[in-house]
Amino acid sequence: MSRRLARELCMKVLFEMHMNKDFDLGKIKYHLEDENFSGKQDDYICAVLGKAIDNMAEIDKIIEDYSEGWKLNRIANVDLAILRLALSEILYMKDIPYGVSIDEAIEIAKIYSSGETPSFINGILGGYVEENLKKGEGR
Predict the structure, then answer these.
(1) pLDDT above 80: residue 137
(2) Which of 12, 48, 102, 116 is most deeply packed, by most CB within 10 A?
C-alpha cells in the first residue's frame, strides 16, 4: 500500500469515528484486517491515528482558530477528518515534511470533497505552519 492510500484510510477511519462518536483505537486493527493491506504502512497508520485521537482537543482548537470564525460543527465531516489527519502529521510526525502533509491533504480533498475545499484546507494548514512552525515554534 502506498502512503497516499494509507492516508486515505486514516481519513476514512477518522471520519467514521467522528460520525459514530467512537474514538476507540481498537477500530484501527479492524480496518487494517478488513482492507487486507500488506502491512508496510501499519506503523504509520497506527501512529498518526493514535496521535490524532490522543490530541483531538488541541487539533480541533487549531482548526477553529485558523478557519476564520468557523465552528467545527459547520465544517463538513470529511473536511474535518482531512484536517485532523494533516495536523496530526504536521504536529507529531517529525519525519514527514510540512509541505508533504499539506499537499497530500489537498489531493485527498480534491477526491473526497467539494470544489472549494482544497483552498479552505490549504488556508488553514498553510496559515498554521506559516505562523507557528516556520518561525521555529512547534515540533
Answers:
(1) no
(2) 48
